[in-house]
Amino acid sequence: MMKKQTAGRDNLGDFAPKFAELNDDVLFGQVWSREDKLSARDRSMITISAIISGGNFAQLKAHLTLGKKNGITKDEIVEVITHLAFYVGWPKAWSAFGIAKEVYGAEK
Questions:
Q1: Which end of the chain is more exposed for a tag (fewer CB within 10 A), N or C?
Q2: pLDDT by residue (tens digit) across 60-88?
Q3: pTM of this structure
């Protein structure tokens, strides 16, 4: 089970309290916690793919880090990004690889 998410409140609690609540309590508290439906690893894989597809790279590092904690290996993330390149675009894959290298480092 994932630890309680507080990123919404930490970053936006004073500015956008309802959004922070939805992020922390609904998205991560209720949806991500339904591990009997999809594992946290699978949710991470889906989320990372959606972020890359949308070109939302500001959120990618945090989700790659979470994905790594949820068991996605370097080899798997390389394969995911390579596969996505053909569907979402080469430049998005290049951008994603740069961030993935930061998160996974020189892992073999």
A1: C
A2: 999 999 999 999 999 999 999 999 999 99
A3: 0.87
